[in-house]
Each structure stands twice: as structure tokens, then as C-alpha cells.
Write a structure and sequence with these properties.
Sel1 repeat protein; globular; two-stranded antiparallel sheet; TPR-like_helical_dom_sf; 89 residues; mainly alpha
Length: 89
């Protein structure tokens, strides 16, 4: 296990199934592109953050890109949503 820091928060990094990482990344892409309706950057950031925690360099890049379009409050909301997801999964 490795401990990583993302957005000022320490996270445990556990190697995951590559299909799970790809699924998390795809959920972020879907939310960012509005595939399920309208674009949702908070949801996209959440999924990219989760994929990044599992080692996806692509997710780190996408998260950084959309963060530039988000307010600090939106980023904080996305981070809370990612932590909530982790507490359940």
C-alpha cells in the first residue's frame, strides 16, 4: 500500500483491477461530456479523483483540467462526494 496526497488530502493507494480504474475514468468522462444529460463537473471531478487514487495518470490530468473551470466550493463538494463514495465502497 502507498499513501498519496491529492488536493491536500492524504489517501491510501491500493492497486486495483485495471477494469475498475477504467470504469471510474469513463464515468468521469461521461459526466464531463454530458453523456447522461448535462455536463456535471462536480461528478466528473469525483470520478477522476477516484480513478487518480487508483493510479490513473489520465484521470490526474483530466481532474486538473476541469478544476480550472470549477470554484473552490465545487471542488470541495466533489472531494466530499469522493470520500463518501469511498466510505461505502
Amino acid at each position: 500500500m502507498t499513501v498519496l496526497q491529492f488536493d491536500g488530502v492524504m489517501h491510501r493507494h491500493v492497486k486495483q483491477n485495471p477494469f475498475e480504474v477504467e470504469s471510474l475514468l469513463q464515468r468521469g468522462l461521461d459526466a464531463a461530456s454530458g453523456k447522461a444529460g448535462s455536463c456535471n463537473l462536480i461528478e466528473a471531478h469525483k470520478w477522476f479523483n477516484l480513478a487518480a487514487m487508483r493510479g490513473s495518470a489520465q484521470a490526474v490530468r483530466y481532474r486538473r483540467e476541469i478544476s480550472q473551470e470549477m470554484s473552490g466550493m465545487e471542488i470541495a463538494e466533489a472531494q466530499r462526494a469522493a470520500r463518501d463514495w469511498l466510505s461505502v465502497h
